[in-house]
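task queued by scheduler; priority normal; single chain, no ligands, no partner chains; default sampling; output format set to structure tokens
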Amino acid sequence: MDISKFDSYVEASLVSWLSRRDIYEKMVSLTSKHDSDITIYETAIAEARAQIREIPALCKAGKLSIALAGEIESQMNAKIGEAQDAIRAVAVPDILMDLIGPDAAEQWASIADIELRRQIIKLVCAPRLRSANKNPRMPLADRVSFGGLMGDLAA
């Protein structure tokens, strides 16, 4: 087995997984099962969004000026942003904070520290290479299994 092919396959799989849109939500979902803080932040987001939805009716009824409505909406959006940042800080391991998202490939390529790359690979995919048994032409994809977060959040 050519180790460079294995390494390339693992890195491509890692970057592809980190680039998926649903990964962040899956991490939040997994973490919220063990961390009640996420529920608190999600409740704060829902309440702020509800207040924003009420603004047009309050303005229409004359109970709120347009200027004040804009100020309240700005404050609520700031609260939503803070709560979303707090959820991300709780749900996403620090080592992955900048890697999850559509620019995962660029972020991965920018990591020069080999030890850091190893830690990320171990956390995210913990690859295992199975024997090709009696079929030396078995595709690499059929021989590699993933653990770590890729295994925990598989679906």
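post-processing summary
- Helices lie at 3-19, 23-32, 36-60, 66-91, 104-109, 114-124, 140-143, 148-152.
- DSSP finds eight helices and two strands in the chain.
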